[in-house]
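Q: Could you fold this chain for me?
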Amino acid sequence: MTVYVFGHRNPDTDAICAAIAYADLLQRTTYPDAVAACCGPPNQRTEFALRKARLAPPRIVMDVRPEAGQVCSANPIVAYEDEVFHEVYQRMREHNVSTLPVLDRQQRFVGLVTLLDLLRVVFEGDDDPTQARRVVSSVRKICEVVHGKLLHAVDPEQVIELQVMVGAMSAEGFTQRLHQCPADELLVVSGNRPTIQLPALEHGVRLLVVTGGYELSPGLLQLAQLNNVNVICSEHDTATTTLRIKSARRIEPAIVRDCTILSDKTPIADARQEFERSNQRLFPVLDDQGRLVGVLSKSDFINPPKTKLILVDHNELGQAVQGADESEILEVLDHHRLGGGLRSNHPIRFINEPVGSTCTLIARQFRAAGIDPSPGIALCMASGIISDTLNLRSPTATPVDRETLDWLRQFVTVDMDSFVQEFFEVGSSLRSQPASKVVREDCKEFEDGGHRYSISQIEEIGYELFWQRRHELFDALQELKHERNLDFAALLVTDIVSNGSLLLLSDEPEFWEAINYPQLERCLYQLDNVVSRKKQLLPLISRLLESTSSVE
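A: Sure. Below is the predicted structure, expressed as structure tokens.
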């Protein structure tokens, strides 16, 4: 089963590069099916790094809750709408099922057929003598169902409506009845009775079925050929043969076309609710083209498989991909504070170290395994370290980050000094993105001291663009706050050149009065030498919250 390696929502370069690099290592070691995934497209800086590394971006997956297409029974036993009762009934008996999905010959889903509905086909109209004798089928199908031998055939594949007439009466009475129906609609069943067979052949009936293993005399067979009469020889007696002919009726009238179907993208939790509301025993699961992917039955909901996840660059469920709380989390590799909500039913590998970048931890896993990264993966991990530590100038940078980045340099094939310069010059969010996207691009939500808030961060070269757009950024933060029901939303704009930041808030909560940084405007503060959301701004907010709580 696929193991997804995920960074946090609104992923930054470190989150995406860590997911790609760790998936690569897992593919080479413990999980061959590991796949790097993310909750949204990479930003321009990350795209630049991946292009330089010649790596594809991770698979975008917005929800990892198990879906009907992943849980359903694939390659189910099916029926086709042009089949007849006998062959579908035999298939049900062979596989011990009472409901089958029905397809057309282009493999598109048509409906469902149940055993009860099939039996109605065989005994259809038994209270009406005319309807009871009606059979819609082909000569070929009838021959197969009675296990007969086709002595003469005229267009045996054509589907026709026939009236069954059993020659179990006097020749005179049979001949009188014979002329009450059009000849090309008549199917005559007869034992070894030439007095019945002769008028039937002279009348030119569509099909004559001779029972008891008997065959037509050469003269009567010649007459059948002259009058274009199909002739079948059945080994069964007349009663058994007649019943089997009725079971050659096509299943079309029994198909339930107005049934509940599920998309293969339906979350299994929603599918379970649908199942509980319905009396339907089997749910067909279709793809976007209307083709059958599989079927769901009650047993499939007892213990559905869980999506397997490895989390990198985060450890809080509030920052994880939707559905993480319903998944099986195998590992966590992170460098942030411990958050809430993450639980497991069994011990898992949990690596959380105070380094500047998750990619530092991933690179250490390569080294521990004795595996050298490819040039592209090495540049990918270096990009995560460079991004998260502002090329080792952030206070979050540690000697471990520096030593790891030096180790990665030996594998890359690009000039790292030029790469770093281009990396920070490319992809200014303020230059290329609407304000609503700027405040969501690298946004993390936190809960602390009874307050829920978000902190977004962007890195720019200088503040010129920020001053031009600060009013629309303020409006976007307020919109974000209301959309996610937060107490406040913050945007940290970090200047890579001056190694400082500006902090813009949607609102100034009461505890904010104790902040010890200069206020430039309403809801705007200058934070010199503050460049890290994790190590500087987040602890600052936590201290302010604690001081307010202690006063209360």
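A (continued): The mean pLDDT is 90.
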